[in-house]
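Submission sheet (multi-component)
Chains listed below:
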Amino acid sequence: MSQPAADPQLGQFSTNPPRELPTRRGTELALLAFAAFIVTCAFVLVEANQEQELTWSIFWYGAAYLGIFSVAHLAVRRWAPYADPLILPCVALLNGMGLVMIYRIDLALAEQAQQTGEPFTPDAPKQVLWTVISLALFLAVLILISDHRTLTRYAYTLGLVGIVALSLPAVLPRSLSEVNGAKVWLKFGFFSIQPGEFAKIALMIFFASFLVSKRDLFTVAGKRVLGVELPRARDLGPILIAAMACLGILVFEKDLGTALLFFGIVLVMLYVATERVIWVVVGLGMFAVGGIIAYNLFGHVQQRVANWLDPLSTYDDPGGGYQIAQGLFGLGTGGMGGTGLGSGRPEMVPAANTDFITAALGEELGLIGLSAILLLYLLLAMRGMRSALAVRDTFGKLLGGGLSFAIVMQLFVIVGGVTKLIPMTGVTTPFLSRGGSSLLANYILIALLLRISDAARRPAAPSKPRPQQQAPLAEAHTVMVQRPEGMGGPGEGRGQ
Amino acid sequence: MNTPLRKVGVAMLAMVALLLVNTTYVQFVKADDYRTDGRNQRVLLEEYSRQRGQIVAAENGQVLAGVEPANDKYQFTRTYPNGPMYAPVTGYYSIIYGATGIELAMDEVLNGSDPRLLVRRLSDMVTGRDPRGGNVQLTMRPSVQEAAYKAMTGKGFHGSVVALDPKTGDILAMVSTPSYDPNRLATHNSKEVRSAWAELTDKNGDKPMLNRAIRETYPPGSTFKLVTTAAALENGAGPDTPVTRAANVQLPGTSNTDLENFAHQPCPGGTLKDALAYSCNTAFAELADQLGADKLRETATNFGIGQQDLSVPMPVAASGLGDLSSSAKLYQSGIGQRDVRLTPLQDALLSATVANGGVTMKPQLVKALLAPDLTPMEEFTPEELTGDPALSAANAEVLKDMMLASEDNTKGGGKRSGLEIASKTGTAEHGVNEKQTPPHAWYTAFAPADDPQIAVAVIVESGGDRGLAATGGSVAASIGRATINAAVGGG
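Outcome: structure written.
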């Protein structure tokens, strides 16, 4: 974590010849290698505990994993050389653990299928394929968007696209939009995608841009009521739009998790842009009211709450607490140290490789392992937040903050649901869950974060090298001059 | 803008901290509640994937239930090398349907959770070896079991054979036919298991999973005369006590209901010894009435009849005398009809008790518990079943002589010169229309008479292959003798 030279201010205001800012790409590579080591060990453990013969699949998965992240590393080295060195290793480790767990659950499901004589197609190869495609998209974003500020030009377009993408599954007939009862998909024949995942990012870009351009309006105080300055009614526009959108999702797609996620993100971005807590208060108030209305209107909301309060008592009800209870059984059986990778029974929880993958990890890795994974997310989000703090433009700050918060918010909604902290709602666990849409969207998110962090740490380019602009000699620091070694170091030829 | 960003950062920290606290609550504080919840199958499955101990016979250490490695999540498959022959003893062990027999009764030892295995389990944990279950050594003698099983299945009989060591109560053989193959229920292919289960539990089928030896009671017919005779001897009668020779007697309190001897013949002799040797019903009917309900019941109780909580260690259905409240009832009960019902095991105990000088030994299937490395952990010592002997040693000797005479009068194959068998046959009427329903054929015996090593009981349900003409002698005796010969006949 120690990065003495990470502060971009140093490069910007140095009155002396700019020191070569370390890019820390070596650190990133070392950490990636460490992540690869952990994932490989996890893989071998699964194979050993499942008493699988050592097959070529290990080699292929391992090679694919290494290949994917080597390319990612090289791309970052080339196109975002100053990017935060911790972000990519965190993602690599999470994605790798996700792959291992999906592969591990495949083994269990294959066995079940073999016993019942049903056909079975493994998910792990598909997930590897999605990871490769995600990486391609990651590269594309990194290359095409050489400066995150260019995104503001497309803010309104992206906002429109986001709204359309979000609402499309609600409008389309079930045959085109429903998979396993969740009406949040777009199906194109053999290929289906969850547009909400992408809408999340598009809308965040739109909101960041919109809020930055209008932020003056939001800081104007409205009426004072009971000593609290309320925002002006017309300024409530964006928050109302967000609220309506969430309600729409709730009503038409029955997707509580996405609604919660959106509302949280919008609130936080509004707060960061305006620096006024009142927006959060108003937002939470609206959320509470909306929640109460939704609870009274919709049976499925009531069921979710009942399952949350006591999943064991609604265990046998249709749509009851069976899944959550099984997840809790798994977590409880895992206990502190876990059963060991490949030695548990994570497949007993329905949707173990998607919504409940953290329950699967908690069972086999225990409280210790699950805590490590949660902290990994925190680390990832905090590095993003740090980049947002350091970047110089307000759009970058707002977008970076929003993207970072989105990771934690999503984690909170899903893991909170799985561990019975909040009612269960179905959202994916970033990078861990099986599923292409989530992976693609989250890699785009990471590409944008890397781009922002690159901008944050990049030394101000000496675009117009005017040595005359150097500080007067009287104000200059004394500088240790490196002794030329052989072909000459960075300070060569400058001298005093 | 940095101030709110920092605050959001703190909020993120708080959110993850909240998740960590809650996960700790679930995985640490509440972990045991969730782990041990009855609906959590993980613990059960864990047990199923442990290497289960073997069930072995006393003789040769022959494996009756073993394990084979399996290439699935359970790691081991239960196998029964001689499935149908030993199914009444071993029971089955199924992932879907649980277990029966010794598999159920000794489950804690076999699955390794028995406290006596604790130390070894700990050492396994330290040495990193997968925990294994302990082994159970049975009292079974495979040669005897095989002879009895083949004799029963050879003719397709439904019924049971039980063989005991009269001195120790060790169960040497326990056959119940028709039987089933427990391997079909032990396989991990749930589809096959379910279809096998449906077939074996078919209501219209032969009930192959019913352990007739200990879970079914039958009217014992004339084999029950051993109890009546013992009661008479204990109450002052002797072998030469005169008894009625009448071919039939009228049941007291009825006008036209007769109780008659077999084939309506008058008894060839007039003593108690003759009556047992020729199985004269009228004599025993009157004898029972003379003794009265209390004395008959007392002797029966001392034979173990009526004991509710016997287990071998599988629970044994209680045998009983039923209602003895009138003379007519005593008449019929004295010859093992009416409401008298014995398990085949209890019927074998009748002979075993006579063989053992009047003392009934507690029947037991488990000889020893062995640790996973086959070192003995606990051996079972013989115990008496009831507090009082059923009859004195002297009277037992008398009854033995009477049984030797009975054997002399019993037809059926399998007799061997040089081997003295003491026996009693039975032909028990049953069913709604008892005269038109083929009777159960019984044979209970012990041998050699001067140094009893084995006591057997055989029941062939509903006449076997002889139909209405079946008798204990013609149907069951040869099976009993085959079983005895396998145990003592130099083979």
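Remark: Chain A touches chain B through 57 residues (CB under 8 Å).
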